[in-house]
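Thread: "does anyone have the structure for this chain?"

Original post by V.I.:
We have the sequence but no experimental structure in hand. Need at least a predicted one for the grant figures.
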Amino acid sequence: MKPEAYILIMILFFFLFSCQMEKAVVKQDRTTDVEIVEETNEPSERENLREGDSIPLKDERVPEPFSEPIDEVRETESIIDVIQSLEESYEKRDFEMWKNFLTDSYKKSYNDPKFLNEEGWDAKDLGSFFALLIETRKSANISALSISRVEFISSNKALVYVMFGDEEFPEPQHTFIKINDKWYKGLLEEGE
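Reply from O.Q.:
Generated one for you, tokens below.
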């Protein structure tokens, strides 16, 4: 055999042998890495776990503190009570009583002639708006509208939908804002 052939065989043998060695080393390193990760994570995670807890992932984001769930039945009843009080104020034509169930933002907006005009009301202030509400309801023979549903936007904001004839009116009729554990008639953009 020629010396070049020996050199070529030796080079090929060297490459084959070195490739096999690298693969073995890589496999060994990967196994070792996995074992180390498992050994370092498991004991500390287990120490902090309580029954029902899950192990958080490293890049898992911690959610904001969860607010208390809404007792929709109780809150809906509270809102209906306010609506009944509003209806009573219309029947009695009691402006002062009516104002007690409005948010400050609602009172301020409906006391502004420019706002009232933009909303399509022919009134100059909150008092004339209240009088116009009563007259409009009387002339259209509108009494209390049936509530179809209350939609809670948050724990302190709710939209009230009403029935108009046999169908639900597509837009909310009332916006209610909860302030200091009491519901008030407010503006749609309030409580955001």
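V.I.: this helps a lot. The chain has two domains: 1-51, 72-186.
O.Q.: and The two ends are 89 Å apart (CA to CA).
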